[in-house]
Amino acid sequence: MAKYIKEAKELLEFIGGKENVKAVSHCATRMRFVLKDDLLANKDNIEKIKIVKGTFTQAGQFQVIVGNNVSDFYNDFVQVTGVDGVSKDSAKDAAKSNMTFIQRVMANLAEIFAPLIPAIIVGGLILGFRNIIGDIKFFEDGTKSLIEVSQFWAGTHSFLWLIGEAIFHFLPVGITWAVTRKMGTTQILGIVLGITLVSPQLLNAYSVAGGDVAPVWDFGFAKINMIGYQAQVIPAILAGFVLVYLERLARKISPPSISMIMVPFFALIPTVILAHVVLGPVGWVIGSWISKVVYMGLTSTFGWLFAGVFGFAYAPLVITGLHHMTNAIDLQLMAEFGGTSLWPMIALSNIAQGSAVLAMVYLNRKNEEEKQVSIPACISAYLGVTEPALFGINLKYGFPFISGMIGSSIAAIISVASNVMANSIGIGGIPGILSIKPSSMLMFTVAMVVAIVVPFVLTVILGKKKLGNI
After folding, report:
1. Which listed residue (27, 80, 166, 375) is catalytic?
2. Fewer beta carbons within 10 Å, N or C terminal of the chain?
3. Reduced to 3 states, what is the DSSP secondary structure of residue 453?
4. Are residues 365 and 371 in contact, defined by beta-carbon separation less than 8 angstroms?
5. Which CATH number does the domain 5-98 belong to among 3.40.50.720, 3.30.1360.60, 3.40.50.200, 3.40.50.300?
6. Is 27 a catalytic residue?
């Protein structure tokens, strides 16, 4: 039986009626609307609906935070309003008509990396765990690590590298697959292309960086270096998109009767050649430039300023969706320098925004309805997902958002000044410490304490002034 008939009708009215809805879908906690005119949506009235916990606009979609019962609400909304629901992917495609060119580029990059993030996170946790048992000298007066005193843990340490290598060394396979998946072309061709970038036949990218001379394919009139692109992001992205457009072109000109042969042949083989002759070397250079510029910014005399600006600006980047670009930069830093000092600042920013929400929980401790939103949002931010905190609480009041940015900035300065380095991307909140290199864990803990205390204290002080009844 429909539970949310009244609320569904109210929401339809306040978003401008059925004629203002181009598409509607839902995710884990939110209704996602693509509206013809966002200005017709009455946010104040929508947020007064009892089931609604907040609203925001992102990536061309007007999003209404409902909570874990969003699927039930969505079903009732579609039933009682007569609005046809679409898949989340279809809604995203429709939303792109409301985006600028830059926003569309960012959205496409985000959709490429989104299916890879679970693997990258678990890979980061595995590498962090391996470092804890393999590098920290816990035993025999601080002279031996766990793997040096236990054969079981030595075997575990070795076995877990199987997964870590699969995730990070063979990352180009995942990227080329994700590109073909996103663009709607043949995914197995994307996988094959990725494998040709990391084949054991090729000289490992890490060996190339170490100065080893690569063997060559000798065609008589030309020679091609047999270089692998393990862990390289940009060469894989470039190759993936070339494959997509060559496949589309081949499909247009190929007679249907022989398309099964012609399309893969004329898409894959030229792409693999281009990948090793042009795209790979060019992408490698571009990736190296980007990573070196970021690394220089973080390690220069003004590294503290770079860190402070990044720590302050990261939460606003989340709102725009531009934060997804940092995934590619982090992965490139890992490939070039064996770790990343950018990702710890991201984790600290998430913690800081969660701490601002925690302060709002304290300030509104007598408001049961408010706590239903703020407590889950705080937990979510501490576990690395800040959208509920940002859109449900911090942006709503303003001052918690600024307090979180200030705390994040200070914590980022401490992190970079102390040369904190992560093995890889991990869970972007408090559990993120598991991805930090053992030598950096102590100072990252100090930075975490700052990211918790400073936003909490600032939010409480400002809250008592702005919310005078507390």
Report:
1. 27
2. N
3. helix
4. yes
5. 3.30.1360.60
6. yes
